[in-house]
């Protein structure tokens, strides 16, 4: 038995090799032709790509108050979600949290400024 897992890391552009026997394997092969080792099946949903319209639709959905947040969490942390959708949902969730924090900071600063102006008596209605 020959372990060539280091070979795959050193030369990522080379043809993949079987982790058990080191024999070269075809990219879409389910079994090693030399030793018969069964390879893990890659889920189709994990390798699907998204179109521009998919991203636009996700942005529109994410702008909905409750549904958007629920889908951000589901797509961001679900196990059967395409990697592109998962990464976009996580990025949008991070952006969402940063926006909320900045909104509360700005609201607090505005409230503090307003109360300071009215307490000092410099504000006049007429």
Description:
- It is a single chain.
- The protein is an all-alpha fold and 126 residues long.
- The chain is built from 5 helices and no strands.
- The protein has helices at 5-10, 44-47, 52-62, 65-77, 83-120.
- Helix 3 (52-62) runs parallel beside helix 5 and helix 4 crosses helix 5.
- It is elongated.
- The chain starts with a helix and ends in a 6-residue tail after the last helix.
- The model is unreliable at 1-12 and 42-46 (pLDDT under 50).
- Number of discrete helical segments: 5
- Along the chain, the helix and strand elements come as HHHHH
In the predicted model, the low-confidence regions spanning at least 5 consecutive residues are: 1-12, 42-46
Shape: elongated
Number of strands: 0
Mean pLDDT figure: 79
Largest sheet, strands/sense/barrel: none
N- and C-termini, Cα separation: 91 Å
The gyration radius over C-alpha positions equals 27 Å
Helix content: 55-70%
Q: Percent of residues in beta strands? A: under 5%
Helix/strand/pairing category: mainly alpha
